[in-house]
């Protein structure tokens, strides 16, 4: 039980750190946008944050696999769609 | 206690609602991303008027509310109702903070006189963030409603279904913002 409590705090700190990196990348974007590698990093951080929320805060890590797959599948689909639209040559 | 057999925490109805909301927002996210592809100049100009630091502060408030809600559920499962109620108040405070910051952002946009009808960027911005704002408001109401029974000790290690259900709803609000924040505020 103690370990689980610590996990909730550790995830909060990880979410804050990922948010800080995302905001920093956004602040330091050039005039023509984020650039490919920064955009990929921002979306990877979003996916990582989403995974932590789905698996640990929503407690789907120990839930029936169907629900875990549905939510992780949604996250993957949305992030890939946004990535494609962002990196598509304009 | 870590469940030994697979268990979906909270009510099945909230999970069906979560699914419906994720699909709806998924369509809105894709619409925003692909509309930006068609009108990059318009979206760049619109996104330049958004304050990234306000978006970041809002992210911190949302994840902190999620953290408090998760700690509240844990405390109640351990039989510590009073502590659980305090964590719930923390979640409510963070949630209300989010609503205040977002309202200030809308007020500023209103003063700037943004054109929702003609400008695709502002139309999608208002739809996405406005719809999300309403969900966050409902989440705050749920926290407020759950606070009294939690403090009274109505939920405990054997029965904290309602509290778990409320927490799942808020985590969904948080999850949606994890995509919304980079999409609307960061990626350009």
Biggest sheet character of chain A:
none
Supply the CATH architecture of chain B. Up-down Bundle
For the secondary structure, the number of strands of chain B is 0
Number of DSSP E strands of chain A:
0
Tally the helices of chain A: what do you get?
A: 3
| Topology pattern of chain A, helix = H, strand = E | HHH
Looking at how many chains there are and whether they match, the oligomeric state comes to: heterodimer
Write down the secondary-structure element order of chain B.
Answer: HHHHHH
The whole-number mean of residue pLDDT values of chain A reads 91
Amino-to-carboxy terminus distance of chain A:
51 Å
Helix content of chain A: over 70%
Structural class based on helices, strands and sheet pairing of chain A: mainly alpha
Q: Name the overall outline of chain B.
A: elongated
The biggest chain-chain interface is: A-B, 51 and 51 residues
Brief rundown of the structure:
Chain A has 90 residues and is an all-alpha fold.
Overview of the molecule:
The complex is a heterodimer of chains A (90) and B (188). Chain A is mostly helical. Chain A has one domain (2-87). Chain A has three helices and no strands. Chain A is flat and about 45 Å long. The model of chain A has no long low-confidence stretch (mean pLDDT 91). Chain B has a single domain (12-186), classed as Cytochrome c oxidase, subunit III, four-helix bundle (Four Helix Bundle (Hemerythrin (Met), subunit A), Up-down Bundle). Chain B has helices at 12-38, 40-48, 52-77, 81-112, 120-152, 161-186. In chain B, α1 (12-38) packs parallel to α6 (161-186) and α3 runs antiparallel to α4. Chain B is elongated, with a radius of gyration of 18 Å. Chain B starts with 11 loop residues before the first helix and ends with a helix. The interface between A and B is large, with 51 and 51 residues.
Reconstruct the topology from this structure.
The complex is a heterodimer of chains A (90) and B (188).
Chain A (H helix, E strand, L loop, with lengths): L1 H26 L8 H22 L7 H23 L3
Helix pairs in contact in A: 1-2, 2-3
Chain B lengths: L11 H27 L1 H9 L3 H26 L3 H32 L7 H33 L8 H26 L2
